[in-house]
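Troubleshooting log. The previous run stalled partway through. Resubmitting the same two chains, unchanged.
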Amino acid sequence: MSEQRSAVPSCHADVVAVDAPPGTPVVALVGNPNVGKSTLFNRLTGSGRDVGNWPGTTVAVGRALWTDEDLGQVVLLDLPGAVSLDPQSPDEELTRDLVSRPDPRDRPDLVVVVTSAVHLARGLYLLRQVVEAEVPCLLAITMSDVAHRRGIDLDVDALAAAAGVPVVVVDPRRGGGSRDLVRTVATSLQGGLAGRCGIDGCTCPRGGCACDHGDTAVPVQAAQPPGDDALARAEARFDWVAAAATAAVLRRHDARDTWSDRLDRVTTAPVLGPLVFLAVMWVVFQLTTTVAAPLQGWLDSLVTGPVSELATRLLDAIGLGGTWVQGLVVDGLIAGVGMLLTFVPLMAVMFALLSLLEDSGYLARAAVVTDRSMRAIGLPGRAFLPLVVGFGCNVPAVSGTRVLPDARQRLLTVLLVPFTSCTARLTVYVLVATTFFGDRAGTVVFGMYVVSILFVVVVGRLLRSTLLRRMPDDPLVLDLPPYQLPMLRLVATGTWRRLRGFLRTASGIIVVTVVVVWALSATPAPGRGGSFGDVPVQDSVYAATAGAVAPVFAPAGFGSWESTSALMVGFVAKEAVISSWAQTFATAEPEAADVPGSLGDALKVSFTESSGGYPIPAVLAFLVFLLAYTPCVATLAAQRREVGLRWTLTGIAVQLTIAWTVAVPVFQVGRLLA
Amino acid sequence: MTLDQAPVGAAATIGPIDAAPALVRRLAELGVRPGQAVTPLHATAGGGRLLAVGDTRVALARDVLRSIQVVAA
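Second attempt completed without errors. Output:
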């Protein structure tokens, strides 16, 4: 096969991001959403996949080296789900672009069009478009068991003859048909089968269609304007699809009221549907907070306790105890890795839930139920899930935006998630509200959640009218896949794959940030005493930086270096705000947030001083700022993974601008009213 | 009659669709196109409907339903 590859040089340099020798054949999976395409991809490639955004886009493409003794090595691409090659979202556009690149040598060597037996006609429509793009292809059919239960069987040979391409029945959930697919792909790559495009009896060679299709061949490389011509071409395709489907479908009986239909009468119904949805969201929220929290606590105490103690003892043993090396290892590296580890249970729970909801088919129903209310901020119903999860923790919420099929919607949701008030912020609200508002603390904390929802709605509308003006407001037109029982093995492997991807991307950012903060706190400011690794925090470069930034917050009433320092640490993690105050005020950290003790007294003095005698408006402004500015470095790491560095930085700018712009009037107006 | 008014449970044949060309094409790709029969199954939360389109199920918003003319099949 390698000899043959060298005869047909490939320009796949940008396609092949996995570690593959030059000239390795590229096979792309293309299919409608929810037909099991990614499950097939995972089944074929095992755990060796790499999912990342395609260069220059925020659209995720799965890439993996597919190795098999009958096949050799192949780069397998999992292209975004597409209803057709006439794109209506950035995801579909990328699929269209990669399938139908202007130079045939840049296109995949083979496209496997994946379709479900239930959605055969729709899959055939996509197949026809791939054929028209003159790319060698074959058809893989999933969900034939579901179709069989609905009274539909397929005559595969008749379908292959009618469609003019090889057809393979696969069951990616259980592994059935994989060998057939391997053999067919291998034969196709050797030029034996694929490439017969089925148009007018054409038998094109692999690597490009050489024959004259006359008027029936419609290249789709260029975007077609959605005018009458395009509709007429679509009509011709529908005729072809109908003929192929008629030849292949053996209908034993009509599918009437299936159990999927009966379930839909509850899950999408006007009153019951939203109730079911709220119940599901409640379970998701509980599992991502209360269930994951004890595991997080256990991991945190393991790292800060035994692991740190062991490291300290080892450093003592080699004579480095009490030096800056100990600070770097224990307070920098181990603290950073520990922070990363505490996210593992949370992310695992979130990813498992995502897999369950997607795999079962419920997510599409949730999208229908919440569609109308979410349109208030210009997002489809599915965006509800990550935003709800955001109230538990922003990090899994950002990763959860993958449930959205459109890259623009994902981007907007990723930018909005930080405005959902996570539980880490709740601890600070409780401490501050108890200190300054006593019995009314509960009302203040509740108010913060109302403000959080207002931020999501208002900022959502603001972004749609500014940075994301080009995002269309398409009405709900959604295919509902049949319900399927989730398979534990699929959920487990999917969870592990996503978790590994998160750790790979987030680990560097989190550990480096924690180490940098430690280094700044360990370095004496110019003109202050002490040495590197042995300096009180108020004499460090960190405190000097906080002091330099503090005047920015003077108009909001909290321009003290202590508050600024707490906000700077809060950039790393909101959990650290209270410990930072305790450190700077040299008081004991309170055992519980609602018993502030001496820290509360110190805060009262500090806020009274920085606000010129108006502590209440200043504290309210501080809380609003705390709510709206960058949640934590782990969220940034997750954002970078989903939407790239540029949009992550844009998000930080948006958050800081909005936080400051709202905090200042809160203080100024509050001061006038006080 | 438009699709939002068509009786639930009875097949209806799609007639002209008065919507943006891109939406008309997407509907067609999902099987909702002139001459095809669809069956409204029930109302959904948010004011739309769930349709049986061949063996598949498609949820449409109310505004989309209103743009689709139908006649009883």
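Takeaways: The CA atoms of residues 1 and 69 of chain B lie 6 Å apart. The mean pLDDT of chain B is 93.
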